[in-house]
């Protein structure tokens, strides 16, 4: 009899717990969807790829697509119908600014016993705002490169750099074979493209600050954040490969986050440095690159290390840092990790050739130095 009395209560408590988790997860998924939609619309407006009408359509479609992946097609359709996109454009002598607001909501089904108390559905909602602009007005950029220097980076790419002697007999070369750029050679050449974009954006070192960290299974070395690109360029050029070393980006991503994250008081190092040049706003960016998966000091993928890197990437993103990732000739687990770490799908690159790597770093440089879109909610 006691069991008969208590069992409905236990079931109800279990149902309430399930519903609470479901509501929390759905709220986060919807917030992610509206955040991503607002950023997508704002970026399209800045790049001239959308106007007021097409921007609103893009916002609705973006929310629907994101919700569809997370919650299914029925929720996607409902979210699209509930999504509202507001675009306010202000034109000045120096260009245009855009304020984008995306709101949406979706109903979550409750378990039966919870439904008796709170209703059969619960409405979760979210709102996201972004600010962006075009024209001559610039904002500061603080960018940290986190680069793999493990042993595998000494492996050859598929790009020929010249020829090398196959057999040397008494100082006479008998036969030659192609010589290839190594991965680290390719990385150094590609990094130049990103640095060049920063210098083009900021020729007088008034807006851009850069730093670099190299890592194996721990931090191998780093160049402190500084104005312009000179220090970071020199550091990257001088990166050497550590023999018999594995890969773990945990400490490096954590250090990069600590170096450039903004605190709520504006007293962090980068805010103080940017403020000295009257930059009230500055973007914080990490570029994370690897050619492998997380093995530590072994040659076997380690799930705990992989998760620890994911945790640090999440911490950085929660701190408002935009993360670009580059999986260069990487295995599947390395690709999966960097897809997770990237702030958006558009921030993830998967080059398998030296040319593609160079193009990826060039694209990241262009994206980092354009008039940017930032969440303001």
Observed structural traits:
single chain, alpha/beta, Rossmann fold, 4-stranded antiparallel β-sheet, 11 helices, 14 strands, globular
State the gist of this model:
With 377 residues, this protein is α/β, with parallel strands linked by helices. Helices cover 45% and strands 27% of the residues.
Structural class of the helices, strands and pairings?
Answer: alpha/beta
Categorize the overall geometry: globular
Main sheet record: 6 strands, mixed
Overall mean pLDDT score? 88
Q: Indicate the proportion of strand residues.
A: 25-35%
CATH topology of the largest domain: Rossmann fold
Low-confidence stretches: 10-14
Assembly state of the chains shown:
single chain
Q: Any idea of the CATH class of the largest domain?
A: Alpha Beta
Query: Superfamily at the CATH H level of the largest domain?
Result: von Willebrand factor, type A domain
How far apart the termini lie comes to 53 Å
Question: In DSSP terms, counting alpha (H) and pi (I) runs of 4 or more, how many helices?
Answer: 11
**What Rg is obtained from the alpha carbons, in whole angstroms?**
25 Å
Helical residue percent band: 40-55%
- H-E order: HHHEEHEEEEEEHEEHHHEHEHEHE
For the secondary structure, the number of strands is 14
Layout of strands and helices, then pairs:
Blueprint: H1 2-46, H2 52-71, H3 73-82, E1 84-92, E2 95-109, H4 112-118, E3 121-133, E4 140-148, E5 156-165, E6 168-169, E7 172-173, E8 176-182, H5 183-201, E9 208-215, E10 219-227, H6 230-237, H7 250-260, H8 269-275, E11 282-290, H9 303-318, E12 322-327, H10 332-341, E13 348-349, H11 354-369, E14 374-375
Parallel strand pairs: 4-9, 4-11, 11-12, 12-13
Antiparallel strand pairs: 1-2, 2-3, 3-14, 5-8, 6-7, 9-10
């Amino acid at each position: 009899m006691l069991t008969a009395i208590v069992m409905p209560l236990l079931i109800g408590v279990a149902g309430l717990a399930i519903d609470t988790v479901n509501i929390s997860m759905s709220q986060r998924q919807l917030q992610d969807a509206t955040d991503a939609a607002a950023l997508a619309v704002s970026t399209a407006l800045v790049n001239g790829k959308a106007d007021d009408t097409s921007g609103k359509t893009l916002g609705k479609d973006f929310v629907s697509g994101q919700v569809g992946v997370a919650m299914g097609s029925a929720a996607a359709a409902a979210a699209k119908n509930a999504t509202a996109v507001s675009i306010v454009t202000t034109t000045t002598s120096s260009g245009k600014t855009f304020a984008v607001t995306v709101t949406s909501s979706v109903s979550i089904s409750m378990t039966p016993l919870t439904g008796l108390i709170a209703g059969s559905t619960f409405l979760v909602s979210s709102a996201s705002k972004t600010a962006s602009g075009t024209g001559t007005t610039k904002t500061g950029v603080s960018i940290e490169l986190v680069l793999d220097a493990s042993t595998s980076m000494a492996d050859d790419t598929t790009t020929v750099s010249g020829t090398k002697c196959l057999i040397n007999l008494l100082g006479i070369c008998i036969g030659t074979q192609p010589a290839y750029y190594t991965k680290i050679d390719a990385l150094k050449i590609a990094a130049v493209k990103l640095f060049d974009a920063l210098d083009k954006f900021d020729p007088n070192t008034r807006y851009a600050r850069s730093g670099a960290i190299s890592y194996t299974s721990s931090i191998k070395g780093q160049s402190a954040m500084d104005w312009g690109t000179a220090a970071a360029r020199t550091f990257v050029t001088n990166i050497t490969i550590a023999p018999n070393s594995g890969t773990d980006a945990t400490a490096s991503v954590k250090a990069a986050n600590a170096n450039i994250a903004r605190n709520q008081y504006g007293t962090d190092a980068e805010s103080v440095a940017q403020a000295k040049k009257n930059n009230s706003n500055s973007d914080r960016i990490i570029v994370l690159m690897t050619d492998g998966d997380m093995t530590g000091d072994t040659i076997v993928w380690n799930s705990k290390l992989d998760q620890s890197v994911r945790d640090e990437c999440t911490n950085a993103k929660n701190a408002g840092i935009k993360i670009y990732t580059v999986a260069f000739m990487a295995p599947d687990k390395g690709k999966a990790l960097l897809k997770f770490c990237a702030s958006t799908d558009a921030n993830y690159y998967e080059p398998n050739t030296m040319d593609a790597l160079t193009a990826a770093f060039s694209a990241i440089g262009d994206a980092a130095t354009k008039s940017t879109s930032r969440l303001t909610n």
